[in-house]
Write a structure and sequence with these properties.
By secondary structure, the protein is α/β, with parallel strands linked by helices. Helix content is 49%, strand content 8%. It has three domains: 18-85, Helicase, Ruva Protein, domain 3, CATH 1.10.8; 105-250, P-loop containing nucleotide triphosphate hydrolases (Rossmann fold, 3-Layer(aba) Sandwich); 255-320. It contains 15 helices and five strands. The longest helix is centred in the middle third of the chain and has 16 residues, at 169-184. The chain starts with a helix and ends in a 14-residue tail after the last helix.
Length: 334
């Protein structure tokens, strides 16, 4: 809207996107008790859910309730399709706040005691952390763990949530994310921040500069807990890096922790016996990360793992397909 037109209004009132807690209340109030708690949480994750979408879906359900065998599923489908038709994404049915049962911060290969770090964050209730390192080392999971231990909501934003095709859209999405985290009192995590936080000296378009500027402003003014994760440290904007209170590298599992995690995962799969030869093989397996265990765990849903040898073979296969980065250095090291 033209500035001259805006000036002619007696009053301008902003109606911001409701925080997730309020969206949850709206859904509960208008869903006629048809939705389960898990469905309500999944729908509330979409910041574009409006009361009108919920009430419209409720009216449709009321009209066809005698023709549907599962009103809850149909209700969810109607909302999902409406959001998608409006280009507002859909319902993300995966709960981002869930941690693997086997998660333990002591497995993380880093230079700092993460339990002590948590104590410091709890005392200050404010932190700006940049977690970097190879994929699968537990950077985002650490953010989830902090949220769980501090009993705070967990708000994860990926590049697809923030990057917009419209000029100024990315900056708006970044600002909205920080606002939502503030309203919710949430632990805010920007995953793969390198996708929109590249060094401005290398920028080829003005919007590449303005989105980094917006990030700088929001970080400077944010007083909560903010975590950025990246696999590519070298190309990040230097001014943004200086705004982080702590930059912490997450590396591959140590031999000791690889075996510890292997034993825990094996027990979860119902494997009681681990031969010494397998234990030695696990300890000698380089470039093994917690994410490899997660991948193998997903495989077990449709391809059951029955022995320790089979578990090791699958982990070895995951490691084998990784790019050989043995001579590469992460972060500031050269």
């Amino acid at each position: 809207m033209d500035d001259a037109i805006v000036r002619r209004f007696d009053m301008a009132i902003e109606v911001p996107i409701p925080p997730k807690s309020k969206r949850r209340e709206i859904i509960q109030a208008h869903s006629q008790s048809l939705l389960e708690t898990k469905s309500i949480e999944a729908i509330a994750d979409n910041e574009h859910v409006a009361p009108a979408i919920i009430t419209r879906a409720a009216k449709v359900i009321d009209a066809i309730k005698n023709q549907t065998s599962d009103a809850s599923k149909t209700f969810e489908m109607l909302i999902d399709n409406t959001l998608k038709a409006q280009g507002l994404g859909g319902i993300n049915k995966k709960t981002e706040g869930d941690l693997p049962v086997s998660y333990d911060p002591s497995y993380v290969n880093t230079s700092m005691d993460l339990t002590k770090l948590l104590s410091g964050i709890k005392e200050s209730n404010s932190a700006r952390l940049c977690l970097y390192g190879v994929p699968g080392t537990g950077k985002s999971a650490f953010g989830k763990w902090i949220a769980r231990e501090l009993d705070k909501p967990f708000l994860l934003k990926k590049g697809s949530d923030l990057i917009s095709m419209w000029v100024g859209g990315t900056e708006k999405n970044i600002a909205n994310a920080f606002r939502e985290a503030k309203d919710e009192g949430a632990v805010l995590v920007f995953d793969e921040v390198d996708s929109f936080l590249q060094d401005r000296r290398e920028a080829k378009a003005s919007w590449e500069v303005t989105q980094v500027n917006e990030m700088l402003v929001q970080m400077e003014n944010y007083e909560g807990i903010f975590i950025a994760t990246t696999n590519l440290m070298s190309g990040l904007d230097q001014a943004c890096l200086r705004r982080f209170d702590l930059k912490l590298e997450f590396g591959y599992l140590t031999s000791k922790n690889a075996l510890r995690l292997f034993e825990v995962e094996a027990k979860m799969l119902g494997i009681e016996t681990i031969k010494r030869s397998v234990q030695s093989a696990v300890e000698s397996l380089s470039r093994l990360a917690p994410g490899d265990f997660a991948a193998v765990r997903r495989q077990s849903r449709f391809a059951p793992i029955l022995t320790a040898d089979d578990l090791f073979d699958r982990l070895r296969d995951e490691v084998a397909i990784k790019e050989d980065d043995g001579d590469k250095k992460m972060g500031f090291l050269k």
